[in-house]
Specification:
Blueprint (H helix, E strand, L loop, with lengths): L2 H19 L6 H10 L7 H13 L17 H28 L2
Helix pairs in contact: 1-2, 3-4
Length: 104
């Protein structure tokens, strides 16, 4: 999912809680920074897998929790996201990490 498409669905999810809880106002620019270098994981399976693998490298967590509930996302897109996570992202994360573990 591209950054503009992500923002379209993410913006309504973060706007209300930000106002209620006193968080910084969500902006598209902030969202794009989080997608690029922060805690938001969206994009191609390769991009998402790379970000997850980087988080998993140091320190080595025993678990990784990923919340992917964007209620405004159409059902078909949510299904596709889950499918890509299992079929393409997870294997791309496991492969390099398993090779690195063998060398430790």
């Amino acid at each position: 999912m591209t950054a503009p498409a992500f923002w379209r669905y993410w913006q309504p999810v973060v706007t209300v809680p930000a106002g209620e809880q006193g968080f910084c106002e969500p902006t598209r620019e902030r969202s794009e920074k989080e997608l690029d270098r922060g805690a938001l994981f969206a994009g191609s399976p390769q991009t998402v897998a790379g970000k997850i693998a980087n988080v998993a490298r140091d320190p080595r967590p025993s678990r990784f929790g990923l919340t992917y509930a964007i209620t405004h996302l159409p059902l078909r897109a949510r299904d596709r996201r889950s499918e890509l996570l299992g079929r393409e992202v997870a294997p791309r994360v496991r492969e390099p990490l398993s090779k690195e573990s063998a060398h430790v």
